[in-house]
Amino acid sequence: MTNDGSGDNRLSKNQRREAAREKARILREEQKKKDRRSKFLLQGGLVVVILAIVVVVGLVIVNGVKPAGPGPLNMLSDGIKIGKDFKAVPTAALQPDAQPVSSATNPPDVIDIKIYIDYQCPVCGAFESTNIDQIKTWVQSGAATYEIHPIAILDSQSLGKKYSTRSANAAACVANYSPNSFFDYSALLFANQPKEGTEGLTDAQLANLAKDAKVKNLDSITSCIKDQTFKSWVTAATTRATTSPIPDSNVKKVEGTPTVIINGKKYLGAVDDASAFAAAVVKAAGDSFSQGSSATPSPSPSTTP
């Protein structure tokens, strides 16, 4: 039986060539359609990714430039002034872009001690451990006031965790919600001071120290620490302290911590010599103490460092 020559076998050579060309054309058109669909999907995916990036960047910018809020209550001078029996002198909050208001002048027989500190600063820790007991005695008796100015100049020393700023913010939270606990809380921050080059205490640990200091309004302070409510104030206060003259003093600007000021004059003695600091306080007092005042500081430290 012979084949009847059906299908392509019945086409001429030219017809087969045209059929092949048409088939190739159809395949090319189908491929172009697939390529267009793939391009469309790729472009759509890129648009989604770009939009997501824009949203994230926008949120970062918004959070970074959001208007600064007021500073903490009781720190109108950018510091908190602690007086007799460790009671804080109450003040209003410093408003954004406002200049600090100097604390009221002490009576003639009360020494004015101010200190600018960074809670990450090991030299500040040395000053604290050496002198805090005698300072505590003077403040408790009313012989002196102690005005503490937390600033943040060592954020680079905490592995990206910005402990200087976070600890200063935590101190500001206590000043705002439980000012009469500030002296104890500040002392606890130094007693638990982390080493430079570590991440520092966590926010939870900072809040636990507030609990140890027996603060009032612990829940509000905990939220304030977590939210870094006074972060913008810490930044602004640090800038003011390190670029401008310190009011009512001979200090042109804070160039390092601790910067200690006694009755308007910078303390130039050793930070780890309690006798030298006590002598400087007595010298600064001069005739400001009445001869019969039992609160007059002694040139000898109350405790041995």
Classified in CATH, the superfamily of the largest domain is Glutaredoxin
Q: CATH top level of the largest domain? A: Alpha Beta
* Helical coverage, percent range: 40-55%
Major sheet characteristics: 5 strands, mixed
Structural class: alpha+beta
Report the principal-axis shape.
Answer: rod-shaped
Low-confidence stretches: 1-6, 60-64, 290-294
Helices and strands, in order, run as HEEHEHHHHHEEH
Return the CATH architecture of the largest domain.
3-Layer(aba) Sandwich
Q: What is the number of E strands?
A: 5
CATH domain topology of the largest domain: Glutaredoxin
Sheet with most strands: strand arrangement: 1-3-2-4-5
The DSSP helix count reads 8
Strand content: 5-15%
Output the radius of gyration.
35 Å
| End-to-end gap | 121 Å
How many domains, in number, for the residues?
2
Q: What's the rounded overall pLDDT mean?
A: 87
